[in-house]
Known about the structure:
By secondary structure, the chain is of the alpha+beta class. It contains 5 helices and 12 strands. Strands 4, 5, 6, 7, 8, 9, 10 and 11 form an 8-stranded mixed β-sheet that branches.
Amino acid sequence: MTKNLEKDFIKLPSGIYVAKQITLLDKDWFDSHKLLQEQGNRMLTPIEFVEFLNHTKDNFPKIYREITEVRNPWRAEHLDAYFEKRKDGLYILTGNRTKEEKLDEDTLVKDRIPGISLDDYLSRAHTSQGLPRSDVKKGNLYFWHPRNGSGAWFFADDGRASLNCYGGPQLRNFDVGVRAVAQEK
């Protein structure tokens, strides 16, 4: 894929460029990382996804709605987060599992189906790792908390929008893709 940063990507306030469209449909989390790396790109982490949603909500509302709106067709995208249980707690691994950090203590660690406010989650109730905090307000965004050996992804369809942190990283479906992050050269 040839990168056209001005046309195909959105520059976030943090300086990263995020693709306007998801690509690599029907690839699992592992294959998506490999293919992105071959393209010189990477996957969005949860905290970058929060920044991306906040930025698109205000500046690219059509893209924001495409990701979050409850409607057909079903849409989903992988996020760069893998969860691993260790003796001292649950860890989030990012950077295709090259960076590891123990989950923030105030991370919401129970399912809310439905249960959290997307607006509250995006505006204030997320951890430094981009996951919902335990004090997030109630709302209609389904949330499945992190579990050992799971990856993270966001999806929306005609029944719900969901932040899912329990699905297997081997999930693949023709509608599941990934949003590339390009580094400025």
